[in-house]
């Protein structure tokens, strides 16, 4: 689901990618519409770097992103399985149930069911 990034999203980008300017997506020339996919696919060097960047997020940041993922406003479908595992690692520290829900969302989206 396309959305405009909020100030909260931009704050998370600043924490996870302080060296990056939030201009346009290099692939499409449009503004980013989510946090996790661009962080993985355009900013992080690899999945280890992605996981390290995720560690800069606070519990409140995670609660915010979890709510967006569960509502369908934040995408996990373009994450690699390894990257998803990094996300689930942090989510499970806050809510094991939400971690399971997010994994189900990922699986269903990879099958084209959602």
Helix content: 55-70%
Please trace the helix and strand order, writing H or E for each element: HHHHHH
Mean pLDDT, all residues: 88
Total strands: 0
Radius of gyration: 13 Å
Strand content: under 5%
Distance between the termini: 11 Å
* Quaternary class: single chain
Structural write-up:
- With 114 residues, this protein is an all-alpha fold.
- The protein has one domain (7-110).
- It has six helices and no strands.
- The chain has helices at residues 7-16, 36-43, 47-54, 59-71, 81-94, 96-110.
- The radius of gyration is 13 Å and the shape is globular.
- It starts with 6 loop residues before the first helix and ends with a helix.
- 26% of the residues are buried.
- The model has no long low-confidence stretch (mean pLDDT 88).
Mind sketching the topology for me?
Layout lengths: L6 H10 L19 H8 L3 H8 L4 H13 L9 H14 L1 H15 L4
Helix pairs in contact: 3-5, 5-6
Features:
114 residues; globular; mainly alpha
């Amino acid at each position: 689901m396309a959305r405009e990034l909020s100030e909260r999203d931009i704050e998370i980008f600043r924490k996870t990618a302080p060296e990056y300017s939030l201009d346009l997506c290099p692939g499409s020339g449009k503004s980013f519409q989510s946090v996790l996919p661009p962080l993985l696919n355009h900013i992080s060097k690899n999945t280890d770097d992605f996981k390290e960047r995720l560690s800069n997020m606070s519990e409140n940041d995670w609660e915010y992103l979890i709510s967006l993922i569960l509502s369908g406003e934040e995408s996990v479908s373009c994450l690699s399985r390894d990257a998803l595992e990094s996300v689930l690692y942090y989510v499970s520290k806050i809510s094991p149930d939400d971690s399971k829900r997010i994994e189900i969302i990922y699986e269903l989206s990879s099958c084209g069911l959602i």
